[in-house]
Amino acid sequence: MNIEIIRGDTKSFKFQRRTTNNEVITEKPDKIFFTVKTGYYSKDYLFQKRLDTDIIYREDDNYYYFTINPSDTDELDYGDYVFDIEVIKGDTVKTIEKGTFKVESEVTFAENEV
Fold first, then answer.
1. Burial class of residue 82 (count of CB atoms within 10 Å of its CB; 0-12, 13-18, 19+)
2. Considering only CA atoms, which of 11, 49, 19 is closest in space to residue 32?
3. Where are the domains of the chain?
4. What is the pLDDT of residues 37-47, one digit of tens each?
5. Alpha-carbon dihedral angle through residues 6, 10, 16, 17, given to the nearest 10 degrees
6. Is the pTM of this model over 0.85?
7. 93-106 burial, b if ≥16 CB within 10 A, otherwise e?
């Protein structure tokens, strides 16, 4: 999966957890992380979203929702980064998605928004 975002913009996402048979998993995990880094081997993350503080689960549709805010990308250089979504339930840790996180150039900067 690849994500593209204009630097400094707001972008909302949703995802579901599914089994290998494509059935929706409704049991809430202990933790979920959406993490963006400069590369797969980087120890430090650029920003992260976490279950219950940034990632919200809605039982009515079994989706997890989160938003990337302008402050998450304002200071990033244009270019390609990496991301993943990791789920932890008990002793089980599973990456359910990973890919490229592309920050594209903006035209209207924050200082132009007056």
1. middle
2. 49
3. 2-109
4. 999 999 999 99
5. 80
6. yes
7. eeeeeeeebebeeb
Residues 6+ apart with CB under 8 A from 41: none
CATH architecture of 2-109: Sandwich (2.60)
Both structure tokens of 25: 């998993």
**Distance (Å, whole) CA 50 – CA 85:** 10
Identify the DSSP state of 70: H
Residue-wise pLDDT tens digits, 1-50: 899 999 999 999 999 999 999 999 999 999 999 999 999 999 999 999 99
Q: Note the Cα 31 to chain centre separation in Å.
A: 14
pLDDT higher than threshold 80 for residue 114: no
- Cβ neighbours of residue 30 under 8 Å, at least 6 residues apart? 88, 89, 90
Q: For position 21, what pLDDT does the model report? A: 95
